[in-house]
Design a protein that fits this description.
Number of strands: 7
Oligomer: single chain
Order of helices and strands: EEHEEHHEHHHHHEEHH
Largest sheet: 5 strands, mixed
Amino acid sequence: AVIGMASCVTRGDIEEIKETQKEILKKVEAGGGARGARKPQGKQAGRPDPSKVYAMAVGDAHFKGPKDAWVTIIEVSDFQCPYCKRVGPTLAQVEKKYGNDVKIAFKHNALGFHQRAKPAASASECAGEQGKFWEMHDQIFENNRALEDAQLTGYAEKIGVDMGRWKGCYSQNKYKAKIEQDQRTSVALGARGTPAFFVNGRFLSGAQPQPAFEALIDEELKKAKASGISRADYYKKAIEEKGLKRM
C-alpha cells in the first residue's frame, strides 16, 4: 500500500488511483489524450482543498516548539510508513529556520495494513506520559522496520523511561482510544494517507520538499501577524473556531 506519491495510502485510495489511471488510459487509447479524464466520484473521491482552513485542534497531541507559536503544523503520521520517516529531516530544517514562530504537533493515523503501526503508536504514547514522546518517536522512526514488542521495549529502555510504568502502560494498551480518535479526526478532515500536514489548518499531502512547507508557512505567518489576534490566542480563534469541521 505504498505508492509512488510520497505517501502511504489506504486501500480505498489505491482503488481510486487505479480507476483514475484506467480512465486516463482509455482516453489515451481512444485518441482523446489524458485531458478530461473523469475522476471517479463517491466516497473515496476528493481531497481537502489546500486553500481552505480546517479546524484541526491540537488537543492533547505532543508538540515541539512554543505553545503560542504563530504557525502550528499538525503532522498526521504512521510510524511504519517509510514516507513519514523520510519527511523527518525536512521538518527538522523547518524547526531550525522558523524557531519560535512554528510548533509541530503529532497526530496518529496508524493505517490498517501496517501491522505494527498501532503498537508503535502505543509505545510512543507510553513514553510520552513520562515526557519522552519525541525521544521514542525518533527511536521508532530510526528503526521503523523493527517494531516487534521486544524491539519497542528495547527502545524504551534506551531512552531511559521507568520501565515498570512503561510496560504496564504498553501491555494495557492505555492509549488505544486516543490513537483511534486521532485517526477518526484526521480522516474526517480528509487526511486518509500518511504523512499529511495541516499548516495553520491548511492541508499539505505527503512527504513534500522543504520549499513546499516554507511557501505555506510564510503565507500563514504573514496572515497571523497581520490578524490583530495575540500569539497566544491565534490558533484557537483563527483556526480551531473558524475553520471547517469536515472536509
